[in-house]
Amino acid sequence: MAQHGRLEGRIALITGASRGIGAAVAKRFAAEGARLVLAARTVGGLEETDDAVRRAGGSAATLVPVDLTDGAAVDQLGGALHQKFGRLDILVGNAAALGDLSPVGHIEPKTWDATVAINLTANYRLIRSLDPLLRLSDAGRALFVSSGAARNANAFWGAYAATKAGLETLVKCYANEMRNTTVRANLVDPGGQRTRMRAHAFPGEDPATLPAPDEMTGVFVDLAEASCSRTGEIVRAYRHPAAHASTGSA
Question: For the domain with range 11-236, which CATH number is right: 2.70.98.10, 3.40.50.720, 3.40.47.10, 3.10.450.50?
């Protein structure tokens, strides 16, 4: 762990932390000195991320196996974190589901409801539960992972695109509500990443042509820092200086 990391001592909750972008952000935050709370549905995946964090020199994380579509469980999360830490400095809302890629008229209601539940409603419930804790921080930072799909409106992406567009609007509204506080809220559009979700959406794509999630984590660090004044923005990781710095590319 860095002796004087950019997130030294900051308490950070990361959802969808068992793999992909969430796991990569967890490792980077730990390297920057953050105290981690990792949330995902599966205990095994969380333990793998925790092992990776400790191998990288970070401290053991607090692991929270939780179904984010269970509103009552999300409500209880805020109380549990308040009791343990007294505040929350950083929230990274990363957990998401692709749903089915099909014409809007063919989307099954059950699939639609499930996609809305994890991509949109769960993040609203997280804000509702954790907003008081973010306000108790000297510099609360709420980051949510979006997608270019929210703005591209591509055929067959209706459920996923609609939920990500809704998330972007929700977070921008929250950011505007927080302008007279110390809380800042932003979205990260990571672009194409070498993740399981991407492989499912584009099975014919060569993963080697895509950046690994580890290469984009600098964007999250920048937005999570107490000194960051940006709010209500969609930050495209693939155009961000921190991404180029971490990959060594121009």
Answer: 3.40.50.720
Q: Which residues of the chain have pLDDT under 50?
A: 1-2, 243-250
160 tagged catalytic:
yes
- Which of 124, 160, 174, 238 is labelled catalytic? 160
> Residue 200 has what pLDDT?
54
Token representation of residue 43: 């205990």
pTM of this prediction exceeds 0.85: yes
Torsions phi, psi of 109, nearest 5? Answer: -55, -35
Tokens of 131: 């907003």
Find all residues with CB under 8 Å of 78, minimum gap 6, and list them. 129, 130, 132, 133
- Report the distance separating Cα 161 and Cα 65, nearest Å: 27
Query: Residue 141 corresponds to which amino acid?
Result: R
